[in-house]
């Protein structure tokens, strides 16, 4: 089984979510956006595209902040079970 995961950088996350840099990191602190994934060494980070798509769909469907926080928690847990 081959898993294909596409990673996107901060600027693309900002564009897809129509949010600025500060708002993006505030969303992480508030639990309504997943934490970025470290890529290799250094300070390079990115987000799995499917997570951003999932959270945007939740917003579009009118989910509450609490429901979105639960989705974020589930996405973080799902990361642990990928391999």
Helices and strands: which structural class? mainly alpha
Radius of gyration based on Cα positions: 13 Å
- Global geometry: globular
Roughly what percent helix?
40-55%
* Uncertain residue ranges: none
**Widest beta sheet: strand line-up:** 1-3-2
Oligomer: single chain
Sheet with most strands: 3 strands, antiparallel
How many domains comprise the coordinates?
A: 1
Quick overview of this protein structure:
With 83 residues, the protein is mainly alpha-helical. It contains four helices and three strands, in the order βααββαα. 54% of the residues lie in helices and 10% in strands.
Describe the model.
This protein is mainly alpha-helical and about 80 residues long. The longest helix is centred in the C-terminal third of the chain and has 16 residues, at about 65-80. It has one domain (about 5-80). The protein has helices at about 10-15, 20-30, 50-60, 65-80, and strands at about 5-10, 35-40, 45-50. The chain has a three-stranded antiparallel β-sheet. Helix 3 packs antiparallel against helix 4 (about 65-80). The protein is globular and about 35 Å long. The relative contact order is 0.18. The chain contains four helices and three strands, in the order E-H-H-E-E-H-H. The protein starts with 6 loop residues before the first strand and ends with a helix. About 55% of the residues lie in helices and about 10% in strands.
